[in-house]
Amino acid sequence: MVGELGLPAFRADQLARQYYARLVGDPAEMTDVPAGIRDDLRERLFPTLMTPVRHIECDGGDTRKTLWRLHDGTLLESVLMRYENSEGGTRNTLCVSSQAGCGMACPFCATGQGGLDRNLSTAEIVDQVRAAARALRDGELGEPGRLSNVVFMGMGEPLANYKRVVDAVRKITSPAPDGFGISARSVTVSTVGLAPAIRRLADEGLSVTLAVSLHTPDDELRDTLVPVNNRWSVSEVLDAARYYADTSGRRVSIEYALIRDINDQPWRADMLGKKLHSALGSRAHVNLIPLNPTPGSQWDASPKDVEREFVRRVRAQGVSCTVRDTRGQEIAAACGQLAAEELAV
Fold it and tell me: Could you give a GO molecular-function term held by this entry (predicted)?
């Protein structure tokens, strides 16, 4: 593309370093590029992909949710979170979206309730990362810092937009000038259980963390909670997860949104632990998620005593289990809520 603009080859490296290393997305800011070509560069190579509609912060400024409007009017959300670690430093995590909306139709999920608008392009996924990295660098969430983790847990099912997500992961993890240089071990790709795509991802050799949104260990309930289970059963999903663990050498995270009186029964905790121990052994880690209820939803989070007992029973089966630190409940941080509110205005 640089050649088509009649520019010398070294400009490609120069522009890549501006974008990935200096986090500049607007040619007007690229002072080492001749002013006479910046308008052409903007039109041909750097069109405005996303415009912030609004930022909402909570958790003392450590969590910021952004609603973006894409070039075609589509709404998109991302969430940036700062965590203090035990050494006194911070871990900065971006929850990135891979689709506008979601077609998986999980009934307790705000994005699933709204349906799928469209897949995001690789550039639209990657630009969320650039924007977050720049915001952290410039101290927009407090002390200046760097983006350390990216999780594909925002709007959409990442493996339903497979090629673009994989392309985005390569750009996120490649060193400059080809990418942001974030460690693959600090990138998580979540899925509701598209078994063939999990196996395909394993063969990519990316070494990212795989997170499987299981939410219940039995097919009867999962057919309702995660409708794609009607196509790929719990056993098929866990077989694919085991293949991923065997191929990548990475532990698999099992996401489990704990919902009051729906999937929080002691016998389900026992079944979950047994099935995971059989399929994955020590390579499974259950990430228990207190449900973030959406407005008007019939679903609610389980009481803390039920949550504690669930954790105890899973661990009793020899499977690691922890409760996720919940963030952003007062700012509608469950992906899809902010976009739904904007559309309702």
Answer: rRNA (adenine(2503)-C2-)-methyltransferase activity
